Amino acid sequence: MRVISAYLLAVLGGKEKPTAADINAILGSVGVEAEADKVSKLISELEGKDLEELIAEGSKKLATVPSGGGGGGGGGGAAAGGGAAAAAPEPEPEPEEEE
């Protein structure tokens, strides 16, 4: 995922065809060491392909994936009653002042 992100950042930065050195420089700038095999595989997979077309194609594929969840699980049961609730203590009446 990091390698793909670095590739996309390079494209957004103006590089039409990012190289392994570009990707390594981007990842190195944030302290991440890229795995050379993953970088070379990504570059070879994307060689000669338009990135915007790939993104549009992937979006179409994602649109066909059902995303609705199953029926709701229903609400949880109410807490078990532990008897009557404790009654709030009644305030003591204040003595009336006589004049």
Can you put this structure into words, describing what you see?
The structure is a single chain. The protein has 99 residues and is an all-alpha fold. It is built from four helices and no strands. It has helices spanning 2-12, 20-29, 36-46, 51-63. The radius of gyration is 32 Å and the shape is elongated. The mean pLDDT is 82.
What brief labels describe this structure?
single chain, 99 residues, mainly alpha, Arc Repressor Mutant, subunit A, 45% helix, elongated
Number of helices: 4
Note the main sheet: none
Terminal residue distance: 85 Å
Portion of residues in beta strands equals under 5%
Overview in brief:
This protein is mainly α and 99 residues long. The chain has helices at 2-12, 20-29, 36-46, 51-63.
Mind sketching the topology for me?
Blueprint: H1 2-12, H2 20-29, H3 36-46, H4 51-63
Helix pairs in contact: 1-2
